[in-house]
Here is the input.
Amino acid sequence: MSKTVVTRIHEDGLRYRSKTVGSPFASKANTRSCFKCGKHRTPDQLQSKKLLGKTEMVCKPSCKELAAALGE
Here is the structure.
């Protein structure tokens, strides 16, 4: 059996024995980032638009309106 490794991040935050398990977005089930503003949103808050010849996901209806509605 493998030995249990305890994760400890030093005060400088740069060196560690092992990384923490999982993703920083694990608590937010199924999120994607907006191509324009970069904020992570749930799929129902995004819409697909053709930008620069590719289909990208952007905030619905717009980044500013969604941020105002969510109080960000």
About this structure: The mean pLDDT is 80.
